[in-house]
Task: structure prediction
Amino acid sequence: MTMPVSPAGLEELWKRIGSILETDAPLPSRIAEAAVAATGARDAALYVRDRDAWVRAGEGLGLDADGHAVPEPLPEGIFVRDGDLWLPLAVEGEIHGLLRLLGVEAAPESSNALAFVLGAVLGAHRLARQVRDAEFELKARLLELESLYDLGLSLGGQLDLSALADEVLFRSISLTDAGKGTLALVEPSGALVLERSVGDDVFSARDVKTWSLPEGGVINNEAASTPTAGLPLATCEKCLVVSIAVPGRRLGVLAVADKESRDGRVLDFTATDARLLSLFANQAAAAIETARLHRDAIEKERMERELELAAAIQRQILPRDLPEVPGLEIAAKNVPTRQVGGDYFDLFPLSRGRLGFVVADVSGKGIPAALLVSTVHAAVHLQIDEAPTIADLVGRIDRHLQRYAATRKFLTCFFGVIEPDTGTMRYVSAGHNPALLRRADGRIEQLGATGVPLGMFPKAQWKEQEVTLGRGELLCVYTDGVTEALDARDEEFGLGRLADLLAAPARPSELCAKVFAAVDAFAEGVPQYDDQTLLLVSRKG
Amino acid sequence: MSETCKVSAERRGDVAILWTDGYINNQGGEEIAREAYAQLDQGVRALVLNLEKTRIVNSIGISILIEVLEKVMDRKGVLAFCGLTPTIDKTFRIMGLAQYAEIFPTQDEALRKVSAQSA
Result:
């Protein structure tokens, strides 16, 4: 709508209302006041479009809002209705507002000029607001980009899952203008790692395991009535939910809900919101995975340090030098695996030239096994001179383990005492692998178990057996790390191969080297996971 | 319900300090505006907004803070922020709030500067 306005008329009008329009008062008040000053109206009110309706703008000049509805349909141009003059304030044909002048029954000569000037002022104000809104929007987009960048930097060095979750959740809520949000992280098993919420929970973390969120997430702008993807939502009207996941594995769920507007309405989430939240979730997933790997690496390092320490303790426990016992020739060797295992052997020169010895294999590996070995070592050294018989010694150690061992572990062991002069050997085998006895004629005899492993059953008892070691005969006590050494085809070295090696007459030290060389050759470099211990005692001829 | 933001205020001479506790969204922003306008109506010309208990601000909250800032400037007053998290600090700088309102690390620094400006 273009109004014929003369420059002179405009100049005249501006003299009357220019100073009013240039004050700091709110724009609706300035326009209404200027209109009153220009027309002598009793009062004035400005109406502007808000979505689909005309609404009163500002407070006006005491005009009662009731009963002053804008006529529908709106007549074209300036019109008078019920004793009031209505001026459409338009620029380039677009009506920006309607000015109502009370008590003006006929359009004065200056009406066109007034509508033109006030329309221009209102239009300029609108334009300024649009520019400001656009600038705000632009800054908000810049903030999103900066936030993505900052989040990447921040999460890159963030190893604390709790801080990481807060960072992601706060930024997600903030940048989507959500009223609330929830983030839950879960283990691969589905067990909850942590849950964070701002406002009421959007979902219950216990349901995370069973959700089947599609890739890219879910926008549910009718959350209250139509739960999506099996999503049991809590208290929200509209929500946006994405998975926090790495390929093949869900790490958690991130949800925001109830997007706010300035006028208090709950808005729909947009595709841009969904994209932004997905990006945040992706960054979170990468950071969580990094934090997990870092945690695992630290744990591994700690374990390795502990294992080294345990291995050092175990090395201290094993005898450094073998005793010289007249009438006997002894060889022994322990090959520990990378992980600390539970093999133990010891030799004790006893009264009357006798030799006591033990070979034991503790169940399990690592620190618990090393601790048990240490306990057994201490118990043996305390009891060896006190116990009247080997069976009694084994019983005492068993009771000690039942009472004091920190973990429910057991061990097999072979205890023996040899009298070099007679070759008499008394022994107890507590569930241990059969010891091998090479007779003078080359036959191999097996000395089987005489009782159950130690630490397994309360009040267990062990039989003590006696055997004679003839001159030149050889006793071989070993742990299952030797006979169960594996090759690349998972085949075991076996008792047969060991027996075959022992059958050929040789000194214990030579046999010992031969056995370990054979086991090595058999394994062909395949890493072994069990300690290997071999004790050979022969009676000199 | 969304996280509710609480706003408390205290007058120290010519300066009013407003403490926020919670999410500065529509509700939080309105609370701040209500308290700030009440202080302005009582003649206060210098406001310090301490946000040390606020971790989240959304764009609605920022637009309300801009309105508050404009009103303070209309009345030839001064507004300062303090206790911002690094994220909120950066948000305010990007969104233009820091152009017209100074940001201080601590409340004491903000009070010192604002008191001097309003004197």
